[in-house]
Amino acid sequence: MGGQSSVLFKASDYLHPRYWPMWCTFGGLRLVSLLPYRAALTVGRLLGQLLFLISGSRQKVVDINLVRCFAEKSIEERNRIKMECYRNLGVSLIEMAMCWWWSADRLKPLVEIEGRQHLDAVLASGRGAILLTGHYTSLEIGGRLLTLFMPLQGMYRTQRNQMFDSYLYTRRHSYLVDIVSRKNTRQLIRGIRGGIPTWYAPDQDFKSERNVFAPFLGVATATISASSRLAQASNAVMLPYYPERKKDGSGYLLHIGAPLENVPSDDEVGDATAINHSIETWVREFPENYMWIYQRFKTRPPGEPPFYP
Length: 309
Prior knowledge:
The chain is α/β, with parallel strands linked by helices. The protein is built from eleven helices and nine strands.
């Protein structure tokens, strides 16, 4: 949120024994999804602790990211963030099951929206709306919950596991107006111009695409310049979007911020800086909710040594 295009799921296509582990995974998630909300989250946090124990070298990526982004924090505080990040990753798997199998009636009591007026004002003005979010562990549930209140289209990146990719694609199709490949810019633009709010998370290292270096949490970061071009081509406004898990375990608060000022512009680096700043604002407030397992800083400016071994 590469490879061949995703297709709708058909169970008979995945009967070979190599798919049995994924069937077992789906079965486990389906069972957990039958639990009450708070109990399901508890299972998710325990699952996250298991992921921590078996993650091996991936922990080194998390450590490097946290040192680069939060050098001012003590090692104890960074370790706390790392552990909470893994617990939240476990919760995100359970939330994915909720997205797939919980009804709208079951989900709606868990969610509140803050800042809906910003989005309504943009749409009323006749412009398109891009809901700019990041790769937070609450990303998936944040998209599903928005669809309870409005039509929504999202960008999609093909997953490596073919069975998982097909099922994820199919389930997202059941609640999103459209799922668009990140390479199919024309289709995405048509939806934005048609007044469909668009769920968009550009904070990944796409080395094959056109990038500029802009600061993100104090680090020069390869940032795709396509984001501002997308907004320009679709006459869209970018609004920060963050799905917060309430600390008391009672549900979610969806934050929609005021539009980014002067984005898009003719300054690609300036636009990338504003986009990164929007995402990092929430990362600084809730660092344990960012997906630190990604090699976000893999591409370095010319002459700079790599961060990751």
